[in-house]
Structure formats: structure tokens, C-alpha cells
Amino acid sequence: MSFSPFCFTLNSLNANDSTLISAVRSGDARALARAISAVENRAPGWSDLLKALFPHSGRARVIGLTGSPGAGKSTLVDQLARVYRKTKNPHPVSQTARDQFTRNQGGAPADDRYTVGIIAVDPTSPYTGGAILGDRIRMQEHFSDPGIYIRSMATRGSLGGLARTTADVATVLDASGRDVILIETVGVGQDEVDIVRLADITIVILVPGMGDDVQTIKAGIMEIADIFVINKSDHEGAERVEREIRALQSLSIRHDGWTPPIVKTVASEGVGIAELAAAIAQYEAYLQKENRALKKSVENWQERLVEMLRDAMLEKARQQLGDGNVARLAAEIAEHKRDPYTLVEEIAGRKL
Amino acid sequence: MSFSPFCFTLNSLNANDSTLISAVRSGDARALARAISAVENRAPGWSDLLKALFPHSGRARVIGLTGSPGAGKSTLVDQLARVYRKTKNPHPVSQTARDQFTRNQGGAPADDRYTVGIIAVDPTSPYTGGAILGDRIRMQEHFSDPGIYIRSMATRGSLGGLARTTADVATVLDASGRDVILIETVGVGQDEVDIVRLADITIVILVPGMGDDVQTIKAGIMEIADIFVINKSDHEGAERVEREIRALQSLSIRHDGWTPPIVKTVASEGVGIAELAAAIAQYEAYLQKENRALKKSVENWQERLVEMLRDAMLEKARQQLGDGNVARLAAEIAEHKRDPYTLVEEIAGRKL
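YS: structure for the whole thing
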């Protein structure tokens, strides 16, 4: 039987498909795309795939970047990816598996630079749920470098599932041996806050001249920032934004004692990106002390575990109800012939 | 035993407390405040309260208003409330119960104008979850008119619970005999989309000069608008916003055949508010035809029912796990000694 990693289809997903698993682990881009699609679309076999990949994850550094539309997130992420691709990785995590696989395929071994995975969470319609054109443009630009893998996710109107799916996709990328995973998202709603929370390091991107209302919204985002970036810092008002951040910082001290640094960038010209990478490395070193990284991860997993359980229980409840029954019961409630609170208590078998 | 509706405490909530129920139904503001707090905070007895109130709800017209920060939502909502307070209600829904109660208290009977309930969903931090100062200012302004009741809700970081709690609070207001319920929220994230979806009528507020990025975000909001408002329409660029909406409308026709009208307002000066009320009345008349209102309500209840079931199942799962166990299991997952997918399948008793 010939060994070809380039012919997986969604239908062929199978926990026993060690070929797909090892192809993903080797970092093969096509296998990775198939695996991510399966996980994102909850295709049959997705959970078995994650079960098999999970033990090989947990080694990547996951960096979340959030900011308003127009803050220049994509440009900053691209620039950061470039810097990592030029940086020698002292501990290449999956070199062995990757080289093994690549040799089997007759290819050249992977390089010794940091490899990067990018997950771009699309802020467009929860209803159309489309993929973004920009993604393809960016893909093309990096096409020649297999060390950068870009994937965009649509913000579907699923029941709180976006953060979870993003986390699962990050797990796949992680298991594929990517050293750095950059998750970029628009920082406004709860979904986005949940997404950046799954990161080891959270970067909040601000820009000068966004007006007071926008800054007000960001109050919530302030509290999750490990590093602040003032992008477009050559624009008027950059000093003011910096003063505002410092003022907010002086009001509340983080419980872990870390004071988030403020890095000024002009991402479109590559200015300040090396400084940002240095700030990230500094926070990373800080996380390694006193088991802080593990503590953070345990906290995140407490939330994620409960969310996963919620979704599983919901599916179970939905199956128990049956689709036709939901429609009939909803009609009875809409006509106020039945009250939903009693009904849910009856089905769940417990008091609300 | 004396009959005093002004001495309910959270502790005294009780399904058999027909005093609280009838006080809420009569529209008594203090009882209403207690009941809403109980529902919002999930205080003991909250679900029994809703069970008792639900059969008396379903008669109010629920209007959702959404727009970016700075779009002038609060001002518009206040102005709309004023218009309704000046409009004679041809079918006062709870006149009887209210008058009965008011007479018992020795007060004057309610007036014959539309009564209004306002729910303002606060877009501030999901972490601090604070109430807004503006609320108190607005409360004071309307203090002399018991026909307007204002309540603000904090956007807490609860697991997708904000939309549900808002819906429950709307049910309480509805059962209290408010003729019109205005729900105002910042239209950006999924949470907010869920909130406006529970409304019978959804109004999307745009303003001139918000820039292209902001308009891009609104693409998702576009699809849920029954009526568009261009507020601050005396500002430059109002015509352009109108052209953009028309252009987007020409691209997709709503499946129910309704073409959302565009109303221009200057809320701060009360301009266009009567026209907005007329547009609302027009859409309402449209909803009455061919059972459209009921159909919409059935669709909404299908989603809400599943969400309620999800939350109930989650609580059940959480109890089964126990808090200490969650922490221990999260630690094992964080150390990659255990995979979460297998664990969740084991607890939920079904394949993911």
C-alpha cells in the first residue's frame, strides 16, 4: 500500500488513521488543513482526532492579539510572523517527527527557525459566516514559506462555540509542531475576550485617535492585556494613548504583580516589531518563574472544561428532545400555553 | 395582617408569595425592582417567580435598539419613550389589574397612555461588570413619571447568559403590564445579536462618519434590522449612509418580503421621533398579517428553549463534577496527563 499524505478527505477521518495523525504531526500543510476543517466543522471523527493529537500539544507558545477594527492587527501579526521566521529556535520542538516525515516523503528537512501558525478570527456577520478575502491575499504572500500557516475562522452564530472551536484549532496547530501560534481577533465582545483568554500571552493593540467611546469599550480589554501595543504610533495622539494606559494602570495593580509594558509600533513599516518580540520573550520568561504559566493554564482549563461539558450536555439534551419536539414545544410556549421554566426543569430533571 | 407591597426582600422570594406576584402585575415599581434583581442575580426562587409571571407575559411589544457606542441610542430611546407616554393606548393591557391594585393602595388609577419599560444593556467591562452612572441620571429625569421604568443590566462574563437574563427581565416587565419594552444594546458581538433577536422589532441605529471599518462590522447587524435609523442626520455624510444601506438592501431581499424603512433622526432635538414611532407601528401592523409575529416568536423560542436547556444541563454537570474535581481535572489536563475530550465524553455519557 502506498503511503500518501496528500489524499485525505473529510470522509476518511478516523481515529485509527495514524497516517493523518502523523502527517499532521509532521506539519504537512494539506493534512493540517484537512484536520482543522474537520475540527472547525465538527465533521465525524473530529473528537477522535483531537484525542489523538492532544497529548502532542502544549508545547507551542500561544499569543492572542486583539484590537479594534482598523488597528492594524493583520499587519502586526504578519510582521511578527516574519520576525519569528528569522529567529533561530534554540529548542525546535518537533524537529524529529517533522524531519522523519519529510525524509519519508523525500523532502528537505525543516529549517531551524521558529515556525508560525496564524488563526485569524473573522469579525464579519454571525449570519453569513463567510471566510475573508484578505486571508487568501495573505496566504499567497506567505505561500512560498511553509514555515507560516494561516487559517481564518468565521464567527458563526453557534451557541458560544467560537472560542471553543478556536481553542481546538489551536490544539491541532500546536500538535503539528508550530512553535508560535498567533491568534488575532477583534476585541469587543465576550466571544473575543474568551478567545484571547485561551492564549498564554495577550497583546492588546490600540491606535491613536479612536475617540473616547472606543476607549471606553476597551476598559474591559485593558484587564486582560499582558502587553500593550500602540500601533500607528507615528500618528498624532500616540502620546495621549500612552498616558491614558499609564493612568489606567496606576488605578489597578495586577494580582500577579506584572506591569504590562507599552510597545510603540508602526506595523506597516516594520517599526517596533523587534521590540514587541522582545517584550513577548520577557513576559514569557516571567511566566516560567514560580509556575505561573502552569497556573494560568489550569485556570483556563477550568473554564474550558466546563464549557466543553456544557456543549456535550446540550447535544445530549437536544437529542433527547428531538428536533420535531423542539418546534412543537416552542410553538406552545410562543402561544403562552406552556411555561418554558417548568418545561426545562422537567427535561433536565432538576430545579433551575 | 397588613398588606404592604413595599417590604419585599430578596430573601422573601417565594412562589406562593402571591403578594409579590400581584404587586409586580400591578406595575408597582418597587416590587418590579425586587423581582428583576432576583431574576438577574438568579436569587433563590427566581425560576418560581418566572413560572408564575410567564402566563401573564406576551402582551408587550418588545423593541430592540442596537448601534455603535456614540450612536445616540440612549437619547433615541428616551425620546421614543416620551412619544409613547404621550400616545393614547387603545388597548390598555393590564388596566384592570393595575387599577385594582392601585385602588387597594389608595392611589390614583393608571393613566391611559402607553407605559414603557427600558432595559439598557451596559457595554462596559465583562470583568468589572459595573452598573452605569448614566442610568441613575436618566432615572432621575423620568422619576416623576411612573409610566417609565428604566433598568440597566451589566454585561457580566457569564457563560452566554446575558441574552437569556435580558429575556427573563423582559418577561418580568411584560408581566408587569408595560405596553412597550425598549431594549437598548451596543451592536457588536454575538451576545448583542442574541439580545436584539428576542425582540419583536429590531431597530439598527447608524450615524454618519463612522468610517469604513465600523460599517464593515455592521454587515452582520444589517441582516437583523427591521427598521434603520440614521441618527445625527444633520451631520455631514447622512446621505452617504443612506445610500450605503440602500445599496446593501438591493443586494439581498429578506425572506419575509419586508423592506426595512430608513428613518432619519436628530434624537438630541427630538427630530424624526414621531416618524420612527410611525415606522414601528407600520411594521407592527405588517407582523400581525399572516401570523408573522407568532412565527417569529416560535423561531425565537426554539433557540431560547435550547439555550435554557443548555444552561440547566451545565449546572447539573457542574454539580455532578463538584468544584474541587474541576480544579483537579483542569490541572491534569494543563499538564497534559489527561485529554479533555475523552474526559467530557465519560462525564456526559455520550460521544462528542
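YS: worth flagging: The longest strand of chain B covers residues 61-67.
IM: good catch. Also The mean pLDDT of chain B is 79.
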